[in-house]
Design brief:
Elements lengths: L9 H5 L22 H11 L6 E5 H4 L7 H4 L6 E5 L6 E5 L15 E4 L2 E2 L19 E6 L13 E6 L10 E7 L3 E11 L4 E12 L8 E15 L2 E15 L6 H6 L14 E18 L2 E24 L10 E25 L2 E22 L2 E24 L5 E15 L2 E3 L5 E2 L2 E18 L2 E12 L3 H5 L12 E15 L5 E21 L7 E23 L4 E16 L16 E11 L3 E10 L2 E2 L7 E2 L2 E11 L3 E8 L7 E4 L12 E3 L4 E9 L1
Family: Belongs to the TonB-dependent receptor family.
Membrane topology: Multi-pass membrane protein
Pfam families: Plug, TonB_dep_Rec_b-barrel
């Protein structure tokens, strides 16, 4: 078994300062960057008694810097490696080593939720949409098995985005932002408490960007609204509506030679094939809470989401069988996906406080259908149907969890999850009528147990042991290596985690804090995919026997008082990774590609009580492999930035400068078995750039 070489650094990290986003005990909640007693109470209930890595992302902090996509929002969340392909909404994300394969296909491994209701499809993919973080009030990031509270069954955990309402939002708000590469953003939020029982809020959004690469324009229009109705003191119902039209040109990936010659050019076939991903989304949801007593409540939610996807992604692959002879080259493959997606589901939560016990019972049900077809691609236009697509999935997750404070200093958190899920892929080749039908049912029981011990007032240590389980997505079944109706085994394993979090007070109301977790997971049958060299833009997927996922995650911060009106506030997010094969027949103990061994994000801000802040930001990213053979290493990089702004009650302004030294680097890449000279898998990172934004509250 491959050794875990950096366990010894855990003790050092545990002694460092830490996190504005992490779990804290009740007496620490006042220090969190949140607004209002209601939010503080909610975060206390969700986070205080978690014996593992769970972070809070307050959307108010996102308005102090440029947040153009989900990758920007997750910048300071340790354990999550998230990068935008080219500065647009097209991103790659991985939590605790999930999705470390072809990297840009179904984006599985993390369950996304909105107000506790899944956005991730029933088969586990996030291919078409991620959530706009600026449309949330806060988000909870529960990494790995710590996502039991949401019923999530994934390697990477879950992220739940909670929507603002008119009752917990104090002002109407206008945001205007823009900057390098043609970025223009505008958002208008209007809210009204119509009566004691009715309230409503709506946000209108427009974002445009030319992009720093060729063939990289994007435009997103969005409407986010919710209406609250409280017919009695013990019943509250809220209706949600979302509409998003998101059109993105895709610049495509480059070979090593193309990257060296011009990192901002489009891939060789991206423009001729007019690669793009255009998604229209409509979502309706309702969540109703019944307060049964002071100690018990029931939440019931339903949702329906419809999407249309238009996705030219592979240009014509031509074969000239007679070389320079008289016969013209023949198209053997191209791909344009044109499909309609329907997701619907429901959730149920029962909460009951019984003495020293806080009991949670939950159920998630989801159903997904994908209908349409794969076409030949002629410059972004459909050029004949090749494959009829009729895929479906259904998933039921049931779970129960108890938080038992059995003594003044000890809390036991234990629970179990049951998952039953179905996958059905029906791809019919039009020319022959042949049906490919990989179909399977996946069932599992997943236990979890953890403990929290309060060492002293403000200092906790914790540990947990859990089972990990994730079934394959329909995309992975479609891409199964044999190209038959064979299926894939589910990923499963065991993970052990220990950590500490706490806060120490300094003179004059200063402080330093930490939240450090160390985890070690043994996984069987991990599903990995690689870019198919015979059909770039598609992938080949298979199970591997044994893998190791291990890491250290630390989020550190402090506030040092300089004078009665000024202070210095450093923030540091550290992620150390060890993702590898374990005595594999083909790859031995090779490291996984795609994830750097370490990632450090940080900033050091000067803050004045008048709302002014300024300071440097930095990113330190280690090298990483581009292939499973570990034959090609992508260089690490160091980025330096600077941000400043003023935050007042009625207005706010920021300036965010990135990559001051204009360093060339690879942001996202596809994964292959072995990199060759013609492997077009690299995407260049963002050059020197600057962004500004203004918020007016009224």
């Amino acid at each position: 078994m491959k050794q875990f070489p950096f366990i010894c650094t855990a003790g050092l990290l545990a002694a460092l300062p830490v996190s504005t986003f992490a779990d804290h005990a009740a007496n620490k909640m006042e220090e969190m960057l949140v607004q209002g007693q209601e939010l503080k109470s909610t975060l206390q209930a969700e986070q205080v008694l978690t014996p593992g890595a769970v972070s809070i992302l307050d959307s108010a902090s996102l308005m102090e810097r440029n947040t153009a996509n989900l990758s920007d929002a997750l910048r300071y969340i340790p354990g999550v490696w998230s990068v935008s392909t080219s500065g647009s909404d097209s991103i790659f994300f991985s939590s605790r080593g999930s999705n470390l394969d072809a990297t840009n296909y179904d984006m599985n491994g993390i369950k996304l939720l909105q107000d506790g209701l899944p956005v991730t499809t029933a088969d586990g993919n996030n291919h078409n949409r991620v959530i706009d973080p600026l449309a949330s009030r806060y988000a909870t990031i529960a990494r790995g098995a710590n996502a039991l509270k949401y019923g999530a069954s994934t390697l990477g955990g879950a992220i739940d985005f909670v929507t603002p309402t008119a009752r917990n939002t104090e002002h109407n708000e206008l945001f205007i932002g823009g900057g390098s590469f043609g970025l223009q953003q505008s958002r208008l939020t209007l809210r009204s408490v119509l009566s004691e029982s009715l309230d409503g809020i709506v946000t209108l959004e427009l974002k445009q960007r030319d992009g720093y690469r060729d063939h990289n324009e994007s435009e997103r229009k969005g409407v986010y609204a919710n209406l609250g109705w409280q017919p009695s003191d013990n019943i509250e119902s809220r209706f949600f509506f979302t509409y998003i039209a998101n059109d993105q040109e895709l610049a495509g990936a480059l070979t090593e030679a193309e990257l060296a010659a011009d990192p901002d050019q489009a891939g060789a076939t991206a423009e001729s094939g007019n690669f793009q991903v255009d998604v229209n989304t409509r979502r309706f949801a309702n969540k109703t809470t019944f307060t049964l007593s002071e100690s018990s409540s029931i939440e019931v939610g339903v949702y329906q989401e419809n999407q249309s996807l238009y996705h030219p992604i592979v240009d014509k692959v031509l074969v000239d069988s007679d070389g320079d002879g008289p016969d013209a080259p023949v198209e053997v493959f191209s791909l344009l996906i044109d499909t309609n997606h329907q997701d619907r589901g429901a959730m149920l939560r029962y909460k009951h406080a019984l003495g020293d016990h806080a009991i949670l019972l939950g159920l998630n049900w989801g159903e997904n259908k994908v209908e349409g077809g794969n076409y030949r691609n002629d410059g972004g236009l459909r050029n004949g149907l090749t494959t009829l697509v009729d895929n479906s999935a259904e998933s039921v997750e049931m779970f129960v969890m108890d938080r038992w404070q059995f003594s003044e200093r000890w809390t036991l958190v234990y629970g179990i999850q049951s998952i039953s899920t179905e996958r059905d892929v029906r791809n019919t080749t039009v020319s022959s009528g042949a049906l490919r039908n990989p179909s399977a049912d996946y069932d599992s029981i997943n236990p979890r147990a953890g403990v929290i011990y309060q060492l002293s007032d403000g200092v906790d240590v914790f540990a947990n042991v859990s089972k990990l389980y994730e079934a394959p997505t329909n995309f992975e079944l479609e891409d199964e290596a044999s190209a038959t109706s064979a299926t894939l085994d589910p990923m499963q394993g065991q993970v052990f985690e220990v950590g500490s979090r706490g806060r120490y007070a300094l003179a004059n109301d200063g402080f330093w804090r930490w939240d450090v977790s160390l985890y070690y997971a043994l996984i069987q049958d991990e599903i990995l995919s690689q870019d198919d060299p015979a059909a770039p833009g598609t992938s080949v997927t298979s199970n591997v026997d044994d893998t190791i996922h291990a890491g250290i995650e630390a989020l550190l911060d402090a506030s040092f008082v300089v004078s009665h009106t000024t202070r210095i506030e450093p923030l540091l997010s550290i992620t150390l990774n060890e993702f590898s094969f374990d005595n594999d027949a083909s790859y031995g103990d090779n490291s996984f590609p795609a994830a750097p061994s370490y990632v450090i994000h940080g900033e050091i801000l000067y803050r004045h009580d008048n709302g002014f802040y300024a300071g440097p930001t930095f990113d330190i990213v280690d090298e990483r492999y581009a292939d499973f053979s570990n034959s090609y290493t992508i260089d690490g990089y160091n980025l330096l930035g600077f941000r400043l702004g003023v935050n007042r009650e009625a207005w706010q302004v920021y300036l965010d400068i990135r990559n001051i030294t204009d360093e060339d680097y690879v942001s996202v890449h596809s994964v292959v078995d072995t990199v060759s000279a013609n492997s077009a898998i690299f995407n260049s990172g963002e050059p020197r750039s600057a962004y500004a934004g203004f918020v007016f509250r009224f």
